[in-house]
Design a protein that fits this description.
mainly beta, seven-stranded mixed β-sheet, four-stranded antiparallel β-sheet, 50% strand, globular
Length: 110
């Protein structure tokens, strides 16, 4: 099970930290990722992290603004989002293998 939280309404330039609580699989052995889907658009990759957290990857559109991290002791993965832009507005999903959570809405608007 994957349960996201932390979304909300934020002004442009603001920050949010998304969290994903994972259960039901061996979290410490699993790479994790974040995806997002804006209204009328296809789901897109945002960031990923290896099981140890040693390697991360980001979409070009968020590189330098977003940071993915994890805590294997808590079975949690995070997405720190800074310098948010209106185009970051989307439902953000935590993903493991073929599974994803229900998503959390992020809205960037003044």
């Amino acid at each position: 099970q994957l349960v996201e939280s932390g979304g909300g309404l934020v002004q442009p330039g603001g920050s949010l930290r998304l969290s994903c609580a994972a259960s039901g699989f061996t979290f410490s052995s699993s790479g994790m990722s974040w995806y997002r889907q804006a209204p009328g658009k296809e789901r897109e990759f945002v960031a990923s992290i290896t099981n140890t957290g040693g390697t991360t990857n980001y979409a070009d559109s968020v590189k330098g603004r977003f940071t993915i991290s994890r805590d294997n002791n808590k079975n949690m993965v995070y997405l720190q989002m800074n310098s948010l832009k209106p185009e970051d507005t989307a439902v953000y999903y935590c993903k493991w293998s073929l599974y994803r959570g229900q998503g959390t809405q992020v809205t960037v608007s003044s």
